[in-house]
Write a structure and sequence with these properties.
Two copies of one chain form a homodimer.
Chain A (H helix, E strand, L loop, with lengths): L18 H9 L6 H18 L5 H16 L6 H16 L4 H31 L6 E5 L14 H10 L4 E6 L6 H12 L4 E4 L4 H6 L5 E4 L3 E3 L4 E4 L2 H10 L4 E4 L5 E2 L16 H4 E2 L2 E2 L6 E2 L4 E4 L6 E4 L2 E4 L3 H7 L1
Parallel strand pairs in A: 1-2, 1-4, 2-3, 4-7, 5-8, 7-13
Antiparallel strand pairs in A: 5-6, 6-12, 9-10, 13-14
Amino acid sequence: MIDQRILPAEFKYISYTSASAVADGIRDMVVRGAPAIGCAAAYGVALAALELCSKNSDEFTQGMEEAFEVLAQSRPTAVNLFWAIDRMRKLMRNSKGTSAEIANILLEEAHKVKKEDIEINRKMGSNGAELLNDGARVLTHCNAGALATAGHGTALGVFRSAVEVGKKVSVIADETRPFLQGARLTAWEMVQESIPVTLISDNMSGHLMSHGEIDAVVVGTDRVAGNGDVANKIGTYMVAVLAKRHNIPFYVACPLSTIDRSITSGKYIPIEERPIEEVTGYRDCQWAAEGIEVRNPAFDVTPAELVTGLITEKGVVLNPTTEKINKLF
Amino acid sequence: MIDQRILPAEFKYISYTSASAVADGIRDMVVRGAPAIGCAAAYGVALAALELCSKNSDEFTQGMEEAFEVLAQSRPTAVNLFWAIDRMRKLMRNSKGTSAEIANILLEEAHKVKKEDIEINRKMGSNGAELLNDGARVLTHCNAGALATAGHGTALGVFRSAVEVGKKVSVIADETRPFLQGARLTAWEMVQESIPVTLISDNMSGHLMSHGEIDAVVVGTDRVAGNGDVANKIGTYMVAVLAKRHNIPFYVACPLSTIDRSITSGKYIPIEERPIEEVTGYRDCQWAAEGIEVRNPAFDVTPAELVTGLITEKGVVLNPTTEKINKLF
């Protein structure tokens, strides 16, 4: 995995050889972004299977169930984690053969999850690119880029695809406290590809909207409920409320694997609270006064009423509802 | 001046002996906060007068006009700066005597500006405290505390006064990127006085509001237009929009010296853009990707329609309008 905690100052890979180490990598945010977490979990399962491939069937199955469990405990909000684990677990249960043969099947499946993710991102990108006008100034929050996926990206994939079809797009990136995915990762990805990008702090988008300087918003998501409510990086909800006030379209790039029809509303999406040191500073640079309490919810929920459209690999769902979402599946 | 750039890690005073050094201190944000800037400017004028007190009348007047000019150029948004300069200039022009005598009059006036500011803050605090229920969880943005004034504070003065009359109040402090006045200064002030304070990043208040965890918002202001539009630290507008959506009262603690009746609307308030290094990191800790553009508007304008009330030393103006504001004067 690319260590996303230290980008853009350093570009470094970390290698993993066990499911529990992959789970630690997800928890510590070496890798983050819902689709990338899904891919990482699939490979985590494959690593567990390779470790266990000389065991007999019972030991293999028991070891694998432990691996599923440790991976599922890593982060609670992004549904792609559970989607990938379920996919791998079902395949394992339906596969016949020696432990080594099943391990090989699971590794091939992880490769497939990764390959499909890129294909899906390209389809979403293409569908989303049609929504952006030439010259559009588009706000995005957090990083829903190549780094958050297996490649191309969800929200940033829309920008990349728009540029590929010849549209001029400029990106406004919220810095995205506390982990600074916007300042560090989105800005870095856009600079790599010479897509114009302007960094702002999270509290500036309302001001720019009120001055007519933002034409659209495109974000990713960690989980969409069956009714179209969108869980995404903390701060997304505030952006959506401001966009609504200023009649700016608010789009969510969302592969079907991120839609969780097992829950009927965003209020059932678990919201992770992360360590306080993320809010009191950034890594070694700690600035907050001592003796304070801290809240650090990592995600929030934007109700479907604020969502202009879900950009999926199967097309754009305008003004999403349970009925429209069910039709996708 | 207390060097507010390095709080809370270090508590250090810087001494000034000239108006131009005071102007630099205001520009560099050694001191910040509209009322504190007003006081600093008044003392800057007094310092210029003391420097010039052995000059003849013409040289004194010319030197003083240069001092007024250099101070007025320091920061554009907070009207208290211009209010204090105008007050000192008028007094100078109406004063008779030697340069030394006038210099002494101006120094006395600076002391008076400071003393009045504390008295006004106490009156605002008392008026505002009545608006808060016992047990209220109150969000504030930036630092409108003792550090932003000559003492007691505007928004934090309301919390202090509420506590003095026996109300339990807990404060939620937005960290306030990019200069982190909330994390560094508001949090520090509240800890000093054992008022419970919880730090969040700027993009979290909407989430807390949607979960019923914020009962009221109280902020300070850098300039209020004649119609009640409020310029305050960048991000205030987003908080106000979210508060409106959730029917949470949004109060602005605002001495009359911060109301600028010479302008009829917030759209005429100049919004300062500050250096990009504030947004690409914090001081020596720089994290943003290289090669990006940056926007750094230091303030935004909250329209009067979103303001539940202006808390002034002459009472609370609910749903402010031009007519109601004119009645205050």
